[in-house]
Amino acid sequence: MKALDYHPSAAARSLASGRTGVIGLIVSTLNDSFFDEVVKEVTGLLAMHGYYLAISVTPETDTDNDHYLIREDRVDGMILLSPLAEDRYVPEMKRRGIPYVLIDNQEAENDVHAVNVDNFKGGYLAGRHLIAQGCRSIAHLCGSESFRSTRERRAGFLRALEEAGMSPFEVASGDYDIAAGYAAGRRWLSGGRLPDAVFAGDDHLALGLINALRESGVAVPGEVLVIGYDDQYLASRLRPHLSTLRQPADQIGRAAAELLLKRIGGKQVRGSGVVIEPELIMRESTTKE
């Protein structure tokens, strides 16, 4: 084989074994360092088990009833990363008998085949941290209501305030992006009233808010404390460095890949969904001098 430079045909082996050696992954964007780290971890672990990862960046506005990776039986298994379309994809994968795992899914009924972070606890930790810093007027900037994580983070935050006998300065819904955080900051500034602290539903919201505040000469954390969520790449490179709730991308990616491999091998037990703890990362943006 070596002398003739012969390599076995992947297509022929697929026909013989009934497997493709390919795992599909659907994600709405890779313009997100958290998603990027999850995908890297999944790719490395699957490669160790002889699988290639086929990544499809499919916007959530895609209205196809199914997906070509699913529809054409191109894969041995599927991973859906933060899917808003799981109600379309999951029934089709079940119908076709394709093993699958969800990451950050929206429907609790699918948790048995999912890897999630305890977002309620993350919101709770954020609220408790700001209260412990002496803040009494605390706002929360949310992302899209379409995401279950948005609702869970908010619920945890509100629970922390309720336990302290406090009400939020404001709870504002929007998008998980820099522009939404900036707009909220500008609105508060133009109204002439600012909170003591803000829990931003992700690091991009936090960055936009900090930009608006500092642009107007408001010191962070001197006048307003800000904490984000995710621990994106940018969080530790901002000035001030951003306090945040870390979602451990390596653990999430590894757990998803291992869960899928068990399903492919027929070794998964019932009720084997995974919930991972977030970690409070304290940096400059919530440290009062």
Give a short summary of the structure:
By secondary structure, the chain is an alpha/beta fold. It has helices at residues 10-17, 33-48, 68-71, 86-96, 119-132, 148-163, 178-191, 203-215, 249-264; strands at 22-27, 52-57, 77-81, 100-103, 114-117, 138-142, 170-173, 197-200, 225-227, 244-246, 274-276, 279-281.
Describe this structure in words.
A six-stranded parallel β-sheet has the order 2-1-3-4-5-11, with helices on both faces. The protein has a four-stranded parallel β-sheet with strand order 7-6-8-9, with helices on both faces. A two-stranded antiparallel sheet has the order 10-12. The chain is built from nine helices and twelve strands. It is of the alpha/beta class and 289 residues long.
Structure characteristics:
6-stranded parallel β-sheet, 289 residues, 12 strands, alpha/beta, single chain, 39% helix, 4-stranded parallel β-sheet
Structural class: alpha/beta
Number of helices: 9
Helix coverage percent of residues?
25-40%
Arithmetic mean of pLDDT: 89
Morphology call: elongated
Query: Which value, in Å, is the CA radius of gyration?
Result: 22 Å
Question: Element order, helices and strands?
Answer: HEHEHEHEEHEHEHEHEEHEE
* Count of individual beta strands: 12
- Biggest beta sheet attributes: 6 strands, parallel
Strand content: 15-25%
**Low-confidence segments:** 6-17
End-to-end CA span:
69 Å
**Largest sheet strand order:** 2-1-3-4-5-11
